Amino acid sequence: MPPRSPGQSAMSARWMILPAVVLTLAMVIFPLGFAIYLSLGGNGTLPALGLGHYSRLVADPAFWSALRVTLVLFAVALVLQLVLGTALALALNRYNVVRGLVRTAILSPFMLPPVVVGMIAIVVLDPGLGAANWILESLGLPHFLWLASPRWSLLVVALIDTWQWTPFVALIVLGGLQALPARVYEAAEIDGAKGWSLFWHVTLPLLGPTLLTAAVLRSVDLLRFFDIIYITTQGGPGNATTTLNIQAYKLGFDFMDVGYASSVMIVLALIVLGSVLFFASLRKKVSW
Fold first, then answer.
1. Is the pTM of this model over 0.85?
2. Which residues cross the membrane (predicted)?
3. I need a labelling partner for 274 at 20 to 30 A (CA). Which of 85, 95, 192, 218 fits?
4. What is the C-alpha to C-alpha distance for residues 245 and 66, in angstroms, rounded to an integer?
5. 138 and 277 together in one domain
6. N- to C-terminal Cα separation, the chain
7. How far is it, in rounded angstroms, from Cα 153 to Cα 162?
8. Does 161 share its domain with 122?
9. Over 50: is that where the pLDDT of 1 sits?
10. Based on the domain organization, do 39 and 85 belong to the same domain?
């Protein structure tokens, strides 16, 4: 069989990647483009009308409230998951005897479907029959309206997501810990570094790229957080847990204001993109 020329190989490669290109266009670019079209006032038959929906966003207090809730939830949950995930990874890396068993056990929360996690939260945090208030009562403390409190429901939702996804962050950080060069620790110990000094000045800087990788993965999910909120609070009480995703869903499916809902989602997509680009650029600066 005669060997292929470079031109034939290039042509074969183009045909091989064609299905992936078509799928990307069909599943990503077309929906995004159509959402932008709807956000500009198009309705599927008429041309786009302009920036009216975006002008409405600027003057809409509900949009700014949803944006604030989205950013607060993002910041609180991301910090909790990175801090607790790092602490859990350090513990697993230190105690080698139980590492394999515990690593297998902690996989379960983020392997659960969000519907299951939401239903577990509803049962455990039920004001009358839930285990959480039963524990408080056993300790002589008053009952707490976990998901019905306008003041605390957002924090409770952040804690639910933290319970589910902290093990995921821990596994990423654990992989980073096991990849750190031993010679750096040997040099640091010779210089007298130990304990917290060793962690702050050696381990944490070396874990920078790993932590930022985890931050990128979690920020995408946290900014478009929807399922657990919808299952547990549906954005309530009031608008206490109404994120941009929840607001867009209600606008599009409850009020059938698809164009305005699309403009909300385009803003959210830009925020997600900005977050990813920020963490990615930061990761390049701390790479070693």
1. yes
2. 20-42, 62-92, 104-125, 152-177, 198-217, 260-282
3. 85
4. 9
5. yes
6. 48
7. 14
8. yes
9. no
10. no
